[in-house]
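Q: Entry one of two.
A:
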Amino acid sequence: MQKVLQQLIELQELDTRRDVLIARLGDLPETVKTLEKQIGNEKEQNIIRQTGIEENESLIQSNKAKIEDLKEKIVRYKEQLYLVTTNREYDALTAEIEFNEEAVRTAEGQILQAGEENDRLREALERSEKNVQDMDAHLVEVRNSLEETQKQTEEEKAVIEAKRSELSAAIPRNFISMYTRVRNARNGLAVVALVRDACSGCHNRVIPQKRVNIYKRNQVITCDYCGRFLYASLEKEEE
């Protein structure tokens, strides 16, 4: 049991060192993902904005051509007014003129609305493109920082992983299972020292009989409160 306990202590030390290496990356990996997602969303929105601008331009040109045709009709109808001989013909021509004049006003309103919408879209597109440029530049910086930090920790992490794999294979499966469960539940800390007669993980006092067995190191003892593996450390006791 003393061997198993020592192996668990060493495993915890390896995992703690690995956690420190991972922590050195900080929020860089998540920042890269967030920036990539934000840039992708902005670009998708810009495609939608650009499509809207093109559709509005097409509508504007179509209405301009429509207005020219309508105005030509109005001119012809007005010229025909001088040639009519009956009130019915006069009223019919007048109705056509009014109908086409209303159609001109409708088309002009659509042109005005599409133009205003394009002004808003172009302004939003310009802001968004500038924002994308800034985010792209920031993404390059974050990626470089991430790659540099990964290179710095890659070799040490590989050594730790190799040692950890070898050590895990030597520890009985039931202890590995318990260790993993406690480590996941206790913020990465599954093996802790006994300090001043208490578990240094949760700071609850350990009963005397358990303390005796912990100092003897002839059993694998766990804390009654947090479930962590406990071991005696002279250095901790001196502290």
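Q: Entry two of two.
A:
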Amino acid sequence: MTDGEARLRLASADSPLAAAEWIENWQAEHEGGRVIASPPPAEWPFRYPLAPDLPEGPVIIRANAFDEALINQQSSGTQLVTTQRAYLEAEWAAALATHAGAWLLLVSTPAPQHPSTTALLPRAFRVTEAAERLSLCVEALREGRTAAALVATASVCMEVNDLEAAARDLDEAIALAPHWAAAHYEHGKLWLRRDDMPRAAAAFQVATDLLPRFAPAWSNLGATLGELDRPAEALAAFETALALDPANPQALNNVGVVRRELGRLTESESAFRQVIQLTPGLAFGHYNLGHTLFLQGRFQAALSAYAEGQARDPEKNPVQASRLALCQVATGDADGALRELRRATAGLPREYRQQLLADTSAILWALVTQQPGLAGWQPVQAWVDGELRGKSG
């Protein structure tokens, strides 16, 4: 934990009186300590730099209604990074680390006690229609083409799939604020949308360099490095994200996947068991554990994990069902494997079904090669071969 993190104080969301008590205790320990108001939290996502200039000496920056900084009605899977709590906390922590005696006190206050914002950009991210949001952002740019306004507008452009406009706005924002992690992070998201993994990785790398305590930047860096077939570097990025957010199931899952790709199966298993402990209802936690156990040759345990995943999976993923069938073959239940394969592949689109059966055949042959004494597999392979010939004939 950095000094900045140690001074990041979050009061209880439902008891603002606890904030007053904490301030009283703090002032008793810090003679002459001051309490100042933060900028309005509704405006935090649209400020660069986020933290104001602070007076010397011990100081508390009190932020009332901090939850207003997190309001974002964007859709289509697009979320402006500066409206994410993890990002704002990382930015504040970095700012506080440069001041020997500053604390941030976040206080949630009931909505009726504070008015809604009238500023253009906060309004934009409170409306539900993307077209109206974009119109308000463009109006804000007319008042001033600041880095924050450009990044916010670029995010909305990505929301409406205008990637060219988003690229222009982000280029301009980075030229104005080359040391702002948010601009580079959004640039990375844009390159992901354009399927340019080298540039996405470079953008996320800059974001991690500028704001190393922001876990999602490390996660995205790891994902892009994985796509670039750089698993060792991807694992290092994912493990950094996990160290920053150790109870995050997605970070654990990412670590488990790459450890498995690197052949570190025991460590992969440990990660997936933690995923299941944190989110027992997540089907893919069980599926990933099953795959790792299968690679270890622990077929009965793998079968149990795949079956648990199928039981929790409303979609009954056909690929994972085929893996369950392979576990059934490996544990001597060829009849059950045939039933599962027929069920899993029934009604699938032709090309998808053919690819799934081809993959199943390849894995089955590999299993037989590694387990020469395996019995009962021949009828399964014969059925798969027959289906493949029938589909290709």
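A: Comment on entry two: Strands lie at 8-10, 34-37, 59-64, 102-107. The first helix runs from residue 3 to 6.
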